[in-house]
Amino acid sequence: MLTVRRCAPLALLFLAGPAAAAARPIVYTVRVPAPETHVAEIEALVPVEGRQPIELMMATWTPGFYKVEDYAGRITELNARTREGAPVAVEKARPNRWRLSAGRARSVTVTYRLACEQRSVTTNWISPELAVLNGAATFLTLADGKPRPHEVRLVLPAAWKGVATALRRAGAEPHHYRALDFDSLVDSPIVAGELDVHGWSVGSSRHELVDVGERTAWDGPRAARDLERMTGAAKRLWGSLPFERYVFLNVFRQGGGGLEHKDSTLLTANPKTAGEPAGYRRWLPFATHEYVHAFNVKRLRPIELGPFDYEKAPTTRSLWISEGLTNYYAELLLSRAGLRDQAAFLASLSAQIASLQKQPGRLLQTVEESSLEVWTNSLSGVNPSEKTVSYYVKGHVIGFLLDARIRRATRGRKSLDDAMRLACERYAGARGFTAAEFEAVVEKIAGTRLRAFFDDALRSTNELDYTEALDWYGLRFASGDGIVPWTLETRPEPKPDEALRLRALLEAP
């Protein structure tokens, strides 16, 4: 088993190893000759080494977004030829697969047109102003599952002055990138257009905020300064940063959502409101949430979430950890970075508790069931129905309660921070953790059995008990005319140690 100290850097998430480096790469050339048509023309030089037939595939989902998508349905005019130019027969083997018979050819060139007119964070968008390309939705690959490098060359309109991606450059040629394997290619979205790049370093880790698209009243330098403070708080939390370079790809366009990647995130920002005070207050925790995912889910992950089968939907009971605890730590990091005061933290936590208590599905579905059934019960965990509960929201609240329980059990000497760091040391490698292993780590840090807590919070539909956590921090739910239900406030005369405990939570190094 691989042990990685403090979520240390990994060259590969699943360690493809020397076999990937030795294999001949698939080389893609992406052209956008007429961006107003929302079409990319793609040429893929595919090594086949005389094997026949071979099958090419498109993924049917993108890691981090639990929804089956028809990426292959965006492809038209798929053709193949040998290096000498002889046509190669192409047969549709499945909705997302193509079978080719190329005789003794060592390689084939496959060309296809790709419609890029969707604005989600897992699909592709091309307009006269910019392009957003996601790996799973863009690049077909060999269906043999063998690790191999993938290279991407971009031939872009002259008006697009820049490209941003977490992919490494391949040589001196402009817009030429190399991924060590298909996982890395899928995990590295690409944006192109007129870019504004704001950079900073935290220790030896370089960070960039890349703004692209038309925006109103957006203050990029301010956003970069705030992100610099947040990423510094993240380093203090984890002890180190697991990447040499991290990129916030901040795309101003209609649509919504953000998606985590190992060394980057793709964000969709509202072009009209993101720069306004209320819009920016929403954007900053949104960007922070995706950054926390670089640690919690991209390194420290449930065992079921990798290595990935891009044609099969994985299921896990642990998304309350991967998403709910990420929500919780996003709010903590903003407070610890000095970007949110105590009142703002309590207001955000109150909103999460109120949201949970308004979900009738909390009494019908456990948070583990919500995670296991994510492919069919919601839009990737968002917008639960009357019969389901959100693992984002309930997981966030459980994180707060669990943190308080650890602190109380250890008299303030340990916290959920310590449990997350220990879990990272043990499981942030190629294998991942089981639900039982994560719970065991938390019990070790707490120095006490927590089975009853986990059974009640995760595996039952009982109401959560807030009493212990509120007593520990000197909090209560406000009451009276005009008070929104589930609004947290400090008690009128908190004990000195209660106030210190709340400060320790929000100002931890």
Task: Tag the structure with descriptive keywords.
disordered N terminus; Neutral Protease, domain 2; alpha+beta; seven-stranded mixed sheet; 509 residues; five-stranded mixed sheet; 15 helices; globular; Immunoglobulin-like
Question: How is this structure best described in words?
Answer:
With 509 residues, this protein is an alpha+beta fold. The protein has 2 domains: 175 residues, Immunoglobulin-like, CATH 2.60.40; 193 residues, Orthogonal Bundle (Neutral Protease, domain 2). The protein has 15 helices and 22 strands. Strands 4-7-2-1-11-14-13 form a 7-stranded mixed β-sheet. Strand 17, helix 4 and strand 18 form a beta-alpha-beta unit. The two termini are 31 Å apart. The N terminus is likely disordered.
Compile the SSE list and pairings:
Blueprint: H1 18-22, E1 26-31, E2 39-47, E3 54-57, E4 75-82, E5 89-94, E6 97-101, E7 107-115, E8 125-126, E9 130-133, H2 135-138, E10 141-142, E11 150-155, E12 162-165, E13 168-169, E14 176-179, H3 182-186, E15 190-193, E16 195-202, E17 205-212, H4 220-238, E18 245-252, E19 258-260, E20 264-269, H5 277-292, H6 319-336, H7 342-357, H8 367-372, H9 374-377, H10 391-409, H11 416-427, H12 435-446, H13 451-458, H14 467-473, E21 475-477, E22 488-490, H15 496-507
Parallel strand pairs: 1-11, 17-18, 18-20
Antiparallel strand pairs: 1-2, 2-7, 3-6, 3-10, 4-7, 5-6, 8-9, 9-15, 11-14, 12-15, 13-14, 16-17, 19-20, 21-22
